[in-house]
Amino acid sequence: MSDGLNQTNRVAPLAMESGEFRAIGYQLVDRIADFLDSVAARPVNPAESPVTVRAALGADRQLPQEGEEAHVLLQRAADILFDHSLFNGHPRFWGYITSSAAPIGALADMLAAAVNPNVGAWALSPMASEIEAQALRWIAELLHYPVDSSGLFVSGGNMANLVCLIAARRARVGPDVRKNGLGTRRLRVYCSQETHTWIQKAADILGLGTDSIRWIRTNHNFQIDTEALRKQIAEDLRAGDEPFLVVGTAGTVSTGAIDPLGELAAICREFDLWFHVDGAYGAMAAVLPEAPPELDRLCEADSVAVDPHKWLYAPLEAGCAFVRRRSDLDNAFSWHPPYYHFGTEATNYYDLGPQNSRGFRALKVWLSIQQAGRKGYAQMISDDICLSRELFERIRSCPELQPLTQSLSIATFRFVPADLDPNAPDSEAYLDKLNRELLTRLQNSGEVYLSNAVIGGKFALRACIVNFRTSVDDIKELPSLVVRLGKDLDSELRKRLAQPGCSS
Asked: Which of 73, 306, 428, 454 has its CB surrounded by the most CB atoms within 10 Å?
């Protein structure tokens, strides 16, 4: 207890009177509103070095010994964030699968932080727990997944997939796995070569080991080859291994491919395997009236992972894990030490996942679903897909751009100089180098932000549109920008390679 404490009138350094909070809050909301109005005119990416960013932050400052005024700190924080950030809310951000965040989500996060419920136990968060349950049910409806399934909000796709795999391991191996581990059992997991790297993290964390993963080849559409899958399962059974889980992907990271979910479900029933779908990106396209037919089979999965911070346009973080049977989550995660007395008459989310202390992630999604409704989401997701197709057609009509793939809202392509001889011995290696450096220039240009994929061994540029701020006017500028920067870079590279002693 500090000296001189007045028990009747304590003043804490972090306390703030309502008048000050209101004034500072209004100022901050005004600044955020101005930022949102101006984001399209800002560079997508400031392309600054770590040295520059650290200097702007004052990264070498010592720990403050005395406090500062809150309004000064917030203004300073807004300055450095608005001037030194990459903006995934920019209409020309088409890089990784991170959406423009709905403004109502930003306000929701502020409201959630003000109430600050711990959504681990119902008694600590009665309304927040019920909002989470309702939001989960609504998302399940959008996915056409059983509304009596169980689930919870987590940080993102990696964690959502991991939660589902932990539930699968307990369900398929039995209760002793929680006490004894796997021992010498050789469990096997099956997925396509296009599956996101979360599967490696999960296999490592669960004690399966990454050698437990059977990477199944894909067909010409980058979907898992189901015949190859059957053969691998049969081969593992003959070897005395234990196949236990198949992963289908609804929207691969590189190309947006959707695995044949119906066939995978049938194979899992035949071999009595757990069927999990990584739908972090593409599963939400199930809301479309013209949804890809395979998404109708999401309802057959034992578990599904989906990211509302992708195609539900929620601010980070927001992932969801759905498991068909609540008992599978309870059996995998529930512990009841003597110091927990929260009762069982309502959902305690610490029973369903790895966290005990949990933030109120559901509020921003719950509010966004009500603001947009099913029809609003169908419109926005459909627009993103249409824009991707329009971009692909514009790429197709440009002689110096080679179209590669288009699925969902992902288009891949590469720049190919008009005078490049495709039969030259090192042409493919040169094109990989050219497009790799071109991607860096595009990202640093501030005009657009793309990412990359490797398509059939070719290094490709990749545009993924999960952005309700993007318009036709934005995408029509991309081909000419790529060609202009590509030509300049091609000229520089050829001169560089022509120098004596230069081989790369």
From this structure: 306
